[in-house]
Amino acid sequence: MKHSLILFFTFAMALSIQAQSSEKAKEILDQVSSKTKAYQTIKADFSFAMENLQEEINEIYEGKIVLKGNKYKVSLMDVDSYYDGTALYTHMIDAEEVNVSEPDPGDEETLNPATIFTIYEKGYTFNYIGEGTADGKSCHEIDLYPENRDKPFSRIKLLILKDELQLYSLRQVGKDGNNYTIVVKSMQTNDSVDDKAFTFDTAANPDVDVIDMR
User: Which of 25, 71, 104, 148 could lock 198 by a disulfide, CB 3.0 to 4.6 Å apart?
Assistant: First the structure.
């Protein structure tokens, strides 16, 4: 009987600690989300890493992103992606080709750059891991776990800059051994950005084939 009581109180304490950890994680993420949504625009330089230890793959690429509301432009791996809020223009520079499509808003498998700062708001539970450092700056470490167990990844690890309340990095841990990491290297906010920046300019690129897949 005594042993059962000890197990019960140990389990109850573990649940209490987990609940407090989840509440702290949500409090921090809410602050990051609120601050980010207040920006009119965001420009950021980032690195994107693909890693598979078993296959000895470790590739790092540099990229740029511009955000304005739900519109974005991403430049990464010789591909420019433009989203004007309705259509997605994928410009494969070396192939001199642009594919135009309408992304499915319900497709949760695709990491939408426009929602990267608010990814936790839907479909995840979270856990506050603790404080650490990144690039010499204090960070909060938070893990996100997908509620849908069929996802191809087991968790997403976020590092949040403590003083700036700004995303430093996002690491997606894949079930197949493929891990993807985004590190925000610099960020500018509230610069003036014309909406034309989020649409591929066909007139300025007459030699590029445009394939409308809508």
Answer: 71
Is pLDDT above 50 for 29?
yes
> Tokens for 29?
């993420």
Is the CA virtual torsion 42, 40, 190, 81 positive or negative?
positive
Lowest mean pLDDT among 11-15, 39-43, 47-51, 142-146: 11-15
Task: Give every CB contact of residue 33 below 8 A, 6+ residues apart in sequence.
Answer: 117, 118, 120, 121
Domain of residue 189, CATH code: 2.50.20.10
Tell me the residue range of the domain where 13 lies. 2-212
Q: Are the C-beta atoms of 67 and 42 separated by less than 8 Å?
A: yes
pLDDT of residue 28 exceeding 80: yes
What pLDDT, on a 0 to 100 scale, did the predictor assign at position 105? 57
Total number of domains in the chain = 1
What is d(CA 156, CA 172) in angstroms, rounded to the nearest whole number?
4
